[in-house]
Amino acid sequence: MSTTTVHLVRHGEVHNPEKILYGRLPGYRLSERGQQMAARVGEHLAGADVTLVRASPLLRAQQTAAPIAAAHGLEVAADQRLIESGNVFEGQRMGHGSARFTDPRNWRRFVNPFRPSWGEPYAEQAARVIAAVQDARAQAEGHEAVLVLHQLPIWLTRRSAEGRPLWHHPGRRECSLCSVTSLHFDDARLRGVSYAEPAGDLAAGALDATGGKLV
């Protein structure tokens, strides 16, 4: 029996002066704080037996993955399956302007929070990330792999792994910036899930994906 761990790392804080929901928009880079977070998670995983590093093709994920890969002499491979969730409000300010909930034109987008009706279905997000996890587990068998991606796909993957419903309260996600959600396998069987926040002390005052302060 071989033991393998696949770490799901959320990217660091993003430079987002417009305070919009940037989603899959290109060019959104890490802030200075986000770079510090990435360095911290790189240090956290430096002693791990990492043989594979993959990341979402979006810049913020690639930048977060860089110090992790460098610590192990590896290259960062892009995996489209790790991309941010799709959202119809991408490029807008949530709660403001054309994205506000009080605008009747948006009500159809909020009609089903269990799917959800405003973006990529939860089940589809979990399925694509789980497929990426299984590929990484097989390639890094007996060692550890790192996948750098985004909060919602990570949280859905964890909920799926733990046998919980995919629908949830967004404010209760345990997946902070540069956090590490680790999936532990015995051969192909999931043995358990663990969670760490190596950059937790840097989170005070950090901005979330819509430009709002986390703390």
UniProtKB/TrEMBL annotation:
Note the InterPro entries from the entry. His_Pase_superF_clade-1, His_PPase_superfam, PGM_Phosphatase
Q: Where are the transmembrane segments?
A: none
Q: Name one Pfam family in it.
A: His_Phos_1
List, alphabetically, the SUPFAM superfamilies matched.
Answer: Phosphoglycerate mutase-like (SSF53254)
| Annotated protein name in UniProt | Histidine phosphatase family protein
Organism this protein belongs to: Brachybacterium hainanense
